Amino acid sequence: MKAHAVVFTDKEQVEYREIQVPEPGENDVVVDVEYSWISIGTESSYLRAERIGGEVPYKEGDRWPFPIVAGYQKVGIVRHVGSAVRGIEVGERVFAALGKVSGMFEPHGGHVNPSVTPAHQIWKLPEGASPLDYCGLVLAQVGYNCGIRPAVEAGDRAVVVGDGLVGQWAAQTLLHRGADVAVLGRHDGRLSLLPESIRGIHTRRTELAAFLETFGKVAIVIDSVGDMAAFRTIQPFMQRDSHFVSAGFLGDTGTIDIQKLRGQEITLHTPSGWSGPRMDATIAAISEGWLHTSPLITHRFRAEEAAEAWSFIRDNKSGCLGVVLEWR
């Protein structure tokens, strides 16, 4: 079966091209894709050959992770349902995670159309839902997961490190739970997209320790970008029984001295990946209107313009946040 996909063919090389995908089995759903959402952080690290798996950094001697079909999230219309699949009908709009592919470093990918996706990676969307609101659902679930992990009491001060999508959604989740939230970032365009009640702190213009002196004791720190230096600066300002949520990709530099957390009784959380219940909860949060997704879409490209999209991402980090590929 033939499909079209966004393929990382080599380090810093992106192509939109025809590929082979397996014929659908009895447990598969075939989806005609409308939109797929680029996960800039994760996909960039693959494109730079920094990792060869979800949490596996590249090391000298490893096989280069190419070619690979990038991504892991999309929305579309069901074209075909396998004989063993229940509860999904042809013509319904769904979210699909990974689709099966052939001849690649990994046997699955996100930016592929049509997508042959196992039924357990399919979610039906609410009636009348906008597809753009849900096409970044896995990544939104990562942010939700970060924000839901720590205990929160009303007024707790929380610091989110990173102004990317995971940081944005983690901050929104903490705000919804009653925290007083500040996001540390380096990009004016991204910080401007935060809700008014969340403080955006530009770390190239504001000395972090000076801000923390005025912010007060911190109950929650979420590192969405893998910045242990920032955490070490924040830690002296953390209160007893506080929480540290580490979600950024750290490669082989993510060492932490547990004994240095013990003095403040800091709880360490290490969220990773996605789960069915969290995906369901994230869909509910978007549907309820407190987790905002499509307002963070800053740019849209046709799928066949994927190489141009990646060039734009590399050259426009400040104003570039949510980037969506259109397949229709």
Automatic annotation (TrEMBL):
Gene3D superfamilies associated with the record: Medium-chain alcohol dehydrogenases, catalytic domain (3.90.180.10), NAD(P)-binding Rossmann-like Domain (3.40.50.720)
Superkingdom as given in the UniProt entry: Bacteria
UniProt keyword annotations, A-Z: Oxidoreductase
Molecular function, one GO term: oxidoreductase activity
KW Transmembrane (keyword) present: no
Domain Alcohol dehydrogenase-like N-terminal: 56-127
Protein name: Alcohol dehydrogenase-like N-terminal domain-containing protein
Record organism: Paenibacillus hemerocallicola
